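Is iron/sulfur cluster placement plausible here? Inputs below.
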Amino acid sequence: MTTSEALSPAAPPIERQTTAGNYFVSNYPPFSFWKPEFVPEARAALQRPPAAGTPLGVYLHIPFCRKRCHFCYFKVYTDKDSAAIGGYIDAALQELALYASQPMIGGRKANFVYFGGGTPSYLSADQLRRLTDGMKRLIPWDEAAEVTFECEPGTLTSHKLKAIRDLGVTRLSLGVENFDDHILEINGRAHHSKEIARAYEYARELAFPQINIDLIAGMVEETEANWRECVRKVIAMSPDSVTIYQMEIPYNTTIYKEMKAAGKLVAPVADWETKRAWVAEAFAELESAGYTVGSAYTAVKNKEKTRFLYRDRLWAGADLVSLGVASFGHLQGTHYQNHHDFEPYVNAIKAGQWPMHRALTPTADERLIREFILQLKLGQTRCDYFLEKFGVDVRQRFAQPLRLLGDWGFGGVEDGVVRLNRDGLLQVDRLLHEFFLPEHKNARYA
Ligand code: SF4
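Reply from A.M.:
I modeled the complex. Tokens:
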């Protein structure tokens, strides 16, 4: 028996059924380690001059939706009237004005902008214009390389899409999720298949530089036949990029509440092996149609032209001014999140206070782990990058988890590049925990 066999478990931890909990790793260290007592560190970062060469992004969370999807774990509201939405726009602009008055942010231009939610396209064309005109006055977008806007197909008219295009949006991201009306309905989605086709046609006519379609593999009642049909339809539409998530059931979802009430531990969705097989099949079909798989979740039609700047900048430590309820930002090494609920957020702004709720300044080692695991989601990352930026050889720093990845048959290091094979890439989120510090393993991502 070799030393490696003696130390390595024979296989990665068993995980078959979809049980409750967050699967997706979106940041590091886990959010449960971010604390209100660290908020002054984010405020102190704002007093410093900007770090040379660090790009600035602006994110705005728009927490309104027509209906709450049964699998949704985001902070969203389905009951706000236009006065409340108008008040939220005012609050977001006041929040941005606070940032623009700080030494670290004032005078800088946005390199990338992201409208997420929730449903940004829930806002009317007039509300969007007022919001974005105000934002541009505070932090200009004229040099922004990417402006992303998430949409729910049923909220899009030709008039609203024209307004969105006129704002300077470069990537329109359509939350399609599935093309079958029964599956959309039973999962609580607000839109129907006809609205997908109509919205996509309008968007194409307006020549958005990039149109992305989001799909979810493994929605409630999804079958293999349905999934194949979804993949066939998305390829027929030929969007610039396709994003595919495997269905997870976090604790604050309607599906989990129903599971709990019925005393069930396993969610009524496909198991992980099935979801991975479906995504593998979708990626293979997309590749046959000329797409390139660029991460665990994305395939792009033209890899020279189509980029995900927001993702790549954030995963490499960009500054991110994050506005709105529950949004996550990053200021020169300190992470922060705003108040989780609408009223505390709006009330803080009205009182002229910062709406930050919790923060964390990771150590240099935690920053290294963060960038390394997030970049592994791309399927490959260069050792040189970490040597130059952190002065650390990741082959040594992560010798043990890298050996495990190799022993389990998911990838390894070759020619200075850490690579995951397709099998590893499709389960990257659970493999990333092997790179966590011991105190962060098994922590809840909430
Ligand atoms: S549209 Fe998106 S944000 Fe809104 S409820 Fe559904 S999943 Fe949540």
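Short version: Residues 63 and 367 are 29 Å apart (CA to CA).
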